[in-house]
Write a structure and sequence with these properties.
heterodimer, A: 111 residues, mainly beta, six-stranded mixed β-sheet, five-stranded antiparallel β-sheet, 11 strands, B: 114 residues, seven-stranded mixed β-sheet, four-stranded antiparallel β-sheet
Chain lengths: 111, 114
């Protein structure tokens, strides 16, 4: 069983809409959660990290963590065509230094 | 530029040849990671260094793969007797903070095995 699950998509949303990206994980001891964005042909770059249950907002991005249900999500408000990319969820167990990545969800924002 | 740099960016080799990739992390980062990524997949963990010590290696990693980080600075990843299944993007990342914190990725080294 894969440790970090993401729907590969593509998720297609119109410009200005809210994009919702989801991620589930299997290790209940996970403590650090990350969302990376990867443009085609480029390397991943961090968008947000979250450690505690609840919501964390940064500009148009909101990360949501629910440890009881073992899922983490990323909301992108007012989606722009420049947001079109693959979004990678990464999860790091407590006591481990190794983030495990999901396969990523492809997001397409069309004008 | 003080980011993570990798060399070479592209490598084409014939099956059975050895290849070596180099990674220069951000200078103050003592933690260095190698990941491998194939099309449509997320980065897959290969190995991890804290300073010069290789602390963890993926169980899935063949013994044809070896990595070093002499003096805790740059790192090399060598693949011996390459196979077509080794074709992938090899990503190096470094990090400053212990349990959390951002992984800073290099641009990657793309390997094509013919």
């Amino acid at each position: 069983q894969k440790e970090v699950e993401q729907n590969s998509g593509p998720l297609s949303v119109p410009e200005g809409a809210i994009a919702s990206l989801n991620c589930t994980y299997s290790d209940r001891g996970s403590q650090s959660f990350f969302w990376y964005r990867q443009y085609s042909g480029k390397s991943p770059e961090l968008i947000m990290f979250i450690y505690s249950n609840g919501d964390k907002e940064d500009g148009r991005f909101t990360a949501q963590l629910n440890k009881a249900s073992q899922y983490v999500s990323l909301l992108i408000r007012d989606s722009q065509p420049s947001d079109s990319a693959t979004y990678l969820c990464a999860v790091q167990p407590g006591g481990s230094y190794i983030p495990t990545f999901g396969r990523g969800t492809s997001l397409i924002v069309h004008p | 530029d003080t980011g993570v740099s990798q060399d070479p960016r592209h490598k084409i080799t014939k099956r059975g040849q050895n290849v070596t990739f180099r990674c220069d992390p951000i200078s103050e980062h003592n933690r260095l990671y190698w990941y491998r990524q194939t099309l449509g997949q997320g980065p897959e963990f290969l190995t991890y260094f804290q300073n010069e010590a290789q602390l963890e290696k993926s169980r899935l990693l063949s013994d044809r793969f070896s990595a070093e980080r002499p003096k805790g600075s740059f790192s090399t990843l060598e693949i011996q007797r390459t196979e077509q299944g080794d074709s992938a993007m090899y990503l190096c990342a470094s990090r400053e903070i212990d349990f959390g914190g951002e992984l800073f990725f290099g641009e990657g080294s793309r390997l094509t095995v013919l």
